[in-house]
């Protein structure tokens, strides 16, 4: 995809474009935190059993340490998943970058062993998003995080066109670039609002009760601004929160979603801005946007049905 190669465009980054390259699927992130239930294991249950038990009870660092020595593509991808969750939910800020770098290395190793490993591609895209956010826009721009992450999302979709998480990551990738880069982002990367909304709609049609995807979708909509986006965000959260969590990760994700829905219900914009800053890393000293680009493209039917 020509739009993914900045060098090919002889692009000289300005302040606006720096935000584009700072691909943060972490915000999105998508959110990372429900990966435990979406991939069938191909390593033996005996090999990964202890790691899965540790993951289920919320011992994510232990789960990564147990999965890594299995030394299969599945084991390394599972280690990457556990490390990403540890970095997002548990680790103190000074330790997060090192943990996410290890997750990146695990995901790359999984893909090297098996280029068809779906979870490896998704985890690598997620890890790149987190690391790019921490390193800052200039470093992320020259490292090419957005382009590489998109390549792994595209590969994941080729491997499994019905992967809810692949569609969710594609949605977050598009919406974040459009929000931060506008026309520059659309031109350089080929991102668009319509593509982002359609990808999230597809993800939620596949897994309407996935609270992690709904949470990330809601964050992206709120960041775009506008009353219609807020209505849609509340609808997505309410639908997903009907499902009961199955493990500690699910409970962590549910608490995040409940907090966001409460803030929306009480119209507490100060708290909402704090959540956006915490999750998307950019709303500390700005006014929360009130008007979204092309707001008519969001409609109640977007939840749970592909367009």
What is this structure, in a nutshell?
With 307 residues, this protein is mainly alpha-helical. It has helices at residues 15-21, 25-28, 45-56, 60-67, 73-90, 93-113, 118-135, 137-143, 145-159, 164-189, 193-206, 211-224, 227-240, 248-266, 269-280.
Summary tags:
disordered N terminus, 307 residues, globular, Serine Threonine Protein Phosphatase 5, Tetratricopeptide repeat
Q: What share of residues are in beta strands? A: under 5%
Q: How far is it from the N-terminal to the C-terminal residue, by CA?
A: 24 Å
Give the uncertain stretches in residue-range form: 1-43, 289-307
Give the total of beta strands. Answer: 0
Global Rg? 18 Å
Please, how many domains?
1
Give the proportion of residues in helices: 55-70%
Structural features, described:
With 307 residues, this protein is mostly helical. The protein has a single domain (13-302), classed as Serine Threonine Protein Phosphatase 5, Tetratricopeptide repeat, CATH 1.25.40.10. Helices cover 68% and strands 0% of the residues. Mean pLDDT is 79; it is low at 1-43 and 289-307.
Topology:
Blueprint (H helix, E strand, L loop, with lengths): L14 H7 L3 H4 L16 H12 L3 H8 L5 H18 L2 H21 L4 H18 L1 H7 L1 H15 L4 H26 L3 H14 L4 H14 L2 H14 L7 H19 L2 H12 L27
Helix pairs in contact: 1-8, 1-10, 3-4, 3-5, 4-5, 5-6, 5-7, 6-7, 7-8, 7-9, 9-10, 10-11, 10-12, 12-13, 12-14, 13-14
């Amino acid at each position: 995809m020509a739009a993914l190669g900045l060098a090919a465009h002889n692009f000289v980054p300005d302040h606006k474009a720096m935000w584009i390259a700072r691909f943060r699927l972490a915000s999105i992130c998508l959110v990372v935190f429900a990966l435990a239930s979406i991939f069938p294991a191909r390593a033996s249950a005996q090999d990964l059993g202890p790691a899965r038990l540790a993951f289920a009870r919320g011992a994510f660092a232990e789960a990564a340490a147990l999965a890594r020595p299995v030394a299969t593509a599945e084991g390394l991808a599972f280690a990457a998943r556990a490390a990403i969750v540890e970095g997002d939910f548990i680790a103190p800020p000074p330790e997060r970058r090192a943990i996410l770098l290890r997750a990146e290395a695990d995901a790359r190793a999984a893909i090297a062993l098996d280029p068809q490993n779906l979870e490896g591609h998704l985890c690598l895209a997620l890890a790149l998003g987190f690391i790019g956010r921490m390193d800052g826009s200039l470093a992320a721009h020259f490292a090419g995080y957005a382009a590489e992450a998109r390549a792994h999302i595209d590969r994941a979709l080729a491997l499994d066109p019905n992967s809810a998480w692949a569609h969710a990551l594609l949605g977050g990738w598009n919406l974040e670039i459009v929000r931060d880069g506008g026309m520059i982002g659309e031109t350089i990367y080929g991102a668009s609002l319509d593509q982002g909304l359609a990808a999230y709609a597809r993800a939620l049609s596949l897994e309407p009760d996935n609270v992690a995807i709904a949470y990330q979708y809601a964050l992206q909509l709120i960041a775009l601004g506008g009353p219609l986006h807020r209505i849609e965000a509340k609808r997505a959260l309410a639908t997903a929160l009907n499902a009961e969590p199955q493990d500690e990760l699910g409970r962590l994700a549910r608490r995040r979603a409940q907090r966001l829905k409460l803030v929306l219900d009480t119209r507490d914009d100060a708290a909402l801005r704090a959540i956006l800053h915490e999750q998307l890393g950019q709303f500390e000293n700005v006014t929360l946007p009130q008007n979204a680009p092309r707001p008519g493209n969001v409609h109640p039917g977007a939840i749970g049905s592909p367009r």
